[in-house]
Amino acid sequence: MAGCCFPVARKGSFKLVRSTSFGSYKRSRREIHKGPMVVCFGEMMMKLVPSVEGVSLADAAAYKKSPAGATANVAVGISRLGGSATFIGKVGNDEFGHMLSDILKQNGVDNSGLLFDAHARTALAFYSLKSDGEPEFMFYRNPSADMLLYPEEIDVNLVKKATIFHYGSVSLIKEPCRSAHLAAMNVAKMSGCVLSYSPNLALPLWSSAQAAREGILNIWKFADIIKVSVDEIRILCEGDDPYDDIMIMKKLFHNNLKLLLVTEGARGCRYYTKDFKGWVAGFVVEAIDTTGAGDSFLGGFLSIVAAHKYIYKDEKRLREALDFANACGAVTVTGRGAIPSLPTKNTVLRVMFSYFN
C-alpha cells in the first residue's frame, strides 16, 4: 500500500528494543497533553498477517492480528508524541470493532467519534510481504462498517474543535462514506481548520488506477497540507518523473495549497511552498518492518503543525519539524506493525540527539 511505508536513511544508525503488544501502551500523567486538537477522519480495520515471514497468503499456516488504518495510525502517532488527537470513523459492533476502539483509548486518542454498526462487520485486511519482496493484499469489505458512515452520523462539534482536520482517500471510494467525508471536510474548512491530506493510495480497493486518480485528485485543491509518496506521484501523474520539481509544481501544487510534502523512502523528504522548496535527509536504521512509517512521519509533523499553524512560512522551523518527522518514521521501521512501533517524543528526541551530537 503506497504511502504507508517510509524507510529512512541518514548517517548515525541505532537500534531500539520495544514491546510488540499493540495494547500495552498507556500514557503516564506526565505524557498527557491537552493542546491543539488534530481530528483524523477515515477507516480503521483489523489486519491479519502471516505468523511466518516471507510466505504468500495462501501458504501461511497461521495469522496474527494487528490494528490498521492510515488515519488511525496518524491519530495514535500524535497522541504517543504528547499531542491531542481524535479519531472519527465506524467499525462493526463486533469483537474486532470493540478491540480497535479500546486500542485508541489505551493510546490516549479520543474515540468518542468512533461509531459501531450493528449490521456490518469491521473490515479485515490480509497482508503479506512475500519472499521476493512483493506485497500481497486481500480485503474483506463487502461492505464493511467503515464504508457505511453517513453524513448525519458525524459529530460536527468534534470537527469544529479541531486545529487540523486530517484525512486520506479510502473513505472516498464508496457511498455513503464519501458523502460523510466531504461533509466533514466542509465543516472543518468553514471552522478554520488546517486541512491535511495524505492519499495513502490503496489500489486494490479501487476499481481501477484511473478511478483512484480521479477520486484522489477530485478533492486535491481543497487541502492546505498534502503528503504524498514518490510511488503515489508516479500513479497520480501517470508515469511522470516524481523527482521533477517543475512537473510537481505544475500538476500537484495549487493556489490554495500551503505545503506539499513528498516522501522519498530511504532519501528522506522534499517540501514545496509558494516561496521555497528543499529536501531533508532521513536517518539510517536497521529496518525490520516499514508498515506505518509514513503515517508515523505525518503524525510527527502534524503534532508540531498543530502548535505552529504557519510553519510553512518559516523554512528553518519547517526543516526542523521535518527532521523530527523523519526521526519518527525511522523509529517506526525498527519495530513490527504500525501502532506497536509508533514512538514517544522522548524516543524520537534521543534518536535526534544521538545523531546531531
TrEMBL record:
CDD domains per record: bac_FRK
A cellular component term, taken from the record's GO annotations: cytosol
Enzyme type, top EC level: transferase
EC code(s) of this entry: 2.7.1.4
Record flagged with keyword tRNA-binding: no
GO biological process, one term: fructose metabolic process
Keyword Kinase: yes
Pathway noted in the entry: Glycan biosynthesis; starch biosynthesis
Residues that span the membrane, as ranges: none
Annotated keywords: ATP-binding, Carbohydrate metabolism, Kinase, Nucleotide-binding, Transferase
Reactions the enzyme catalyzes: D-fructose + ATP = D-fructose 6-phosphate + ADP + H(+)
MF terms in GO: ATP binding; fructokinase activity
Pfam family, one: PfkB
Family annotation (SUPFAM superfamilies): Ribokinase-like (SSF53613)
Residue span, Carbohydrate kinase PfkB domain: 37-344
Family classification: Belongs to the carbohydrate kinase PfkB family.
Primary role: May play an important role in maintaining the flux of carbon towards starch formation.
Identification of the protein by name: fructokinase
Organism encoding this protein: Abrus precatorius (Indian licorice)
